[in-house]
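Checked the freezer inventory, then went back to the computational side. Two predictions to log before the end of the day. The first one is the construct we discussed on Monday; recording sequence and tokens without edits.
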Amino acid sequence: MAGRTDTMKQPVTPKAAPEPVAAPITEGLSREEKLAAWIQKNGKFLAIGGGVVALVVLATWFISASTKRKENFARQALEQAWGTADAGNIPQASAALQKVATNFAGTDAAFEAVLSLNQTRLLAGQTQLAVDDLRRFIATSPPARFTAPANMLLGGALENLGKATEAISAYEAALASATLDHVKAEALLGVARAARTAGDKDKAVAALRQIVEKYKETAAFPVAEVRLGELAASN
């Protein structure tokens, strides 16, 4: 017992408490000094993050370069197709334009190819084929700069098919998506022409008056004045 008692009586040396980690002092520091303190504390994290950022930048550059190359190839193919059309070989040009639209989908050149393809179809008398394809194209919600010309082509094709009421809707859609004054004025001329064919004189007059009032600097202005005079004389 004595041994145990002696042992129990021996003083126990307490374990040293862990030294507290000094927190960065930010009280009273400027914004720049606080930022420097944070960077010093999180240096390892920033090094890792910097690597991630570098990878993101590299991936972004690669995608951008790849997209640019694709657009360049598409543009070259489109210009070759246009050259074939200018030479009078419409069937071959149509086939080439279809390839551009399919193989380079998503590029500006591909969107232009769709429009050019349907222009050639209209010239070749393939009006219903053009209408169907233009409607599919518009339904994909292409960039706004291609929506207006697509609806203009659609309006003209529908007029050729004798569908004046549907043509009005197409021209109004072109007007809504157009950003350039001369395109808006041409769309309004289309509305007026189709409305007159459909027997809706009031809509035709309203469209022509918009041109006269808002788009005096466009080529559609003198045409609108003449047509307004014709409609007034027909009363």
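The second is the one RB wanted added to the comparison set:
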Amino acid sequence: MRFRPELHKILHPLLQYSDTRPIRVLAARRRTFDASPMPRPLAAIVTLGCKLNLADSETIARRLQAAGFAVVDRLCEADAFVLNTCSVTHVADAKSRRLVRAARRLSPDATVAVTGCYPRSAGNDAAFALGADVVGGTGDSDKAILVAALAERVSTAAPARPVPAAAFHTRSFIKAQEGCNDVCAFCIVPRTRGREQSRPVAVVVADVEAAVVAGAREVVITGTQLGAWGRDLRTELRPHHLIAGLLASTDVPRIRFSSLQPQDITPELLALWQDPRLMPHFHLALQSGSDAILSAMHRRYTARDFIEAAARIRAAVPDAAITTDVIAAFPGETDADFEATLALCREAGFARVHCFPYSRRSRTAAATMASQVAEPVKKDRLARLMTLADDLSVAFRRRFEGSVRPVLWEAPRRLGDTISSFGHTDNYIPVYSPEPRPANRLTATQLGPVYHDGVRGFAPEGDV
């Protein structure tokens, strides 16, 4: 954690402070309100990147609320900003830089805190040069110090602002694990997130219980390398032990577990999906369908391993959505390698594919590899991959046309020129309905034809 010089004297006593205990206070991504008759300073938390960043932002939001802030989860005029950044690609770096500059322009006198992966990859000085007042990493102690820094500066230097209306969020992101010991050739995350650290079952359970008390109907259990959960604990455990503990010790209606790799899809894990509270949705990161490229990436599975893992999921959870990540144009990728990736995607029948062009990252093995793919070829492959991804997504959604599935309704979304009710099925199909649906309610809903990027939802059959 780094501060501008005037902050260091104030915060020096906190530098050794570490608090990993869950705070049982309302998470900002679910609801924002200001019931106090006295105005409170407003903090805007903006999150880029992965679900793990969303979980970190929720933790920061709870701590800021406990410190007396009103919190919103978007860019607006504010007394303080927490900008939770991403550095997974050079595009993510650019978005992070633009976000810091935008916050500084929007509220020049606000205190700007930058956290997440960007300062870990680019360096703290790069964030200060953009206009940050406080720069922190991704650890729990960093979050505590960041909140103390904002509380100190805002209480003495900034006026409170009106709290704008905020969206209602039904899903809470809960961190179970941090860090990664793998060294994939393309990935900078082990440098920005550190070594693997699992949070004990009791700590994760406590966070889930707090989310339920605050009103969440669904939790997403996340981590940098979630399949590694438990192997660093004093008594070595596996992800199915964590899931079993959550099912036994909480009453949250919906649990998502994201994400895993093929070697993590064990019989013990899949057996737990007999419980309807576990959502039929598995995110398995593919990256490439070519064994040669998977080996060059230092991935720990083959294309056949991946297909077999997907088959095990389909056998155990027939209606499951399987989503994935794929990188186009990794160094050395030939036309045949790319065609193998397209073929595997078709065979797997993914419900959604997150497509990325390879991004050259300094301090990674792939950055110095020969045979970097030319930009025109990279763009062409990415376009073909995205077209296939759209086709696969439409095909998956059409499988369920006319069926009735549980939908958790969230905040409304704009669809064209109108505002539409919006939610997700248990198997993660986005559902739009022109009729008003109460947010944070689970209803059995008939699914209609493909509609925008989801499906049209017809009149609910009743609460679930």
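For RB: The first strand starts at residue 2 and ends at 3. The longest helix spans residues 375-398. Let me know if you want it refolded.
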